[in-house]
Design brief:
Radius of gyration: 22 Å
CATH class of the largest domain: Alpha Beta
GO molecular function: oxidoreductase activity
CATH architecture of the largest domain: 3-Layer(bba) Sandwich
Largest sheet: 7 strands, mixed
Helix content: 25-40%
Shape: globular
CATH superfamily of the largest domain: FAD/NAD(P)-binding domain
Pfam families: Amino_oxidase
Strand order of the largest sheet: 9-8-18-19-20-17-21
Protein name: Flavin monoamine oxidase family protein
Keywords: Oxidoreductase
CATH topology of the largest domain: FAD/NAD(P)-binding domain
Family: Belongs to the flavin monoamine oxidase family.
Structural class: alpha/beta
Length: 453
Amino acid sequence: MNIQQTEVVIIGAGFSGIAAAKKLHEAKIPFLILEARERIGGRVFTKHLSENLYVDLGGQWIGPTQDRMYALCQELNIPYFETYDEGKNILNLRGKIRTYQGIIPKMDPLSLINLDILMRRLERMAKQIDIHSPWTHPNAGKWDEMTLDDFLKKYSKTKYCYEVIKIGCETIFACELSEISLLHALFYIRSGTSLDCLINIKNGAQQHRIEGGMQRIIEEMAKPFYDKILFESPVERVIQGADSISVDFGDQSIEAQEAIIAIPPPLLNQIQFEPGLSKEKQELFQNYPMGRVGKCFMIYEKPFWRTLDYSGQVVSDDPLTHQTVFDCSPADGSFGILMGFVIGNRAEEYFSLSEEQRKNRMMRSLKQYFGEKAETAIQYLDFTMSDEAWSKGCYAGLMPVNSWSKFQDNYRKSEDRLHFAGTEAATRWHGYIEGAVLAGEAAASKIIKTQPN
């Protein structure tokens, strides 16, 4: 077996692993990175279709209070631009299509009042959550036993109110709302600043996009140590000894003093740990599913909907179409790109179809919203991280009922020489790229603090 030696081995070259590596590099601590794919980025993946045309198949937005991402853009001299947010939005609810301005769709007065009260209720509850220990809230047990869907049904007095907030929450959490506890939803909202921030484009989590695509940031981050990344090297075994760690992959091994693990939670089940991870971690991994989301892109020569005074944004409860649609055209509008999210059960049904069927379904729905010009697309493509062996889903791992109460912060706890990163280890902006960066830097900081002066 070919054995290499270093100070730290990092498993995973997504944003969290690369952020950890950057911090170690700056501290002059030797490391090697093992990446199962042939690329860096993890759940961020920018696909270039031509010199001036690209789509972000994974994470793509940044917004206010994501301070590390903005700092990285400044440090690396990478420009960002405003997500297009002008003109009429579209609501497709119970077979009726209507337009509206702003964040709240047009509905009957009772539903609008109900929606406002329900959103403010969620906001108030989330503000009470300690992001470092959500299980310590006096009502944590009760909230953790209830699904988010149970809560929304209980306090939605009209069907319209329930359908609209359900679509919004599905887009935020990338799952069926019966798959997560209310406590997890409240923690997630608090972690991401507020419900308004998570939902909005202007002053919200979707405010800015990166010129050239999100992967441009991680490529620049990794440039100084790109030669330290070993691609197509999935880890098979991690052996902790008294004084060191051995990480085996294929017919090779790396011996190190410390390890940072920065991969999606389900992938940890595919690694043999000797000795095994703690009982609590192992139990958590038995029911720690990933979000389920697909991104579908219809590409046009120009963003024609803008001349019709449409923002390109759609919210729909139609189970055969996308929950939400956004204008994802490049900064200069040189192409027009409409991107639709299919989430949870809708995503599974949608991706059971052939690519031609998926394209036709999206084109039919866009024609319904924007007219016959929607049929003039020059290209269609779609992608789901659920089909990726080294992601298993997106945006992040989900905490089902009673998980926070039982497992608390066990995921992010270090175990001897093993340190855990990834966005699931983040307390701030959990589930987002910002969270991945913060968790990677936190893991690296633990190692740096143990180094002799």
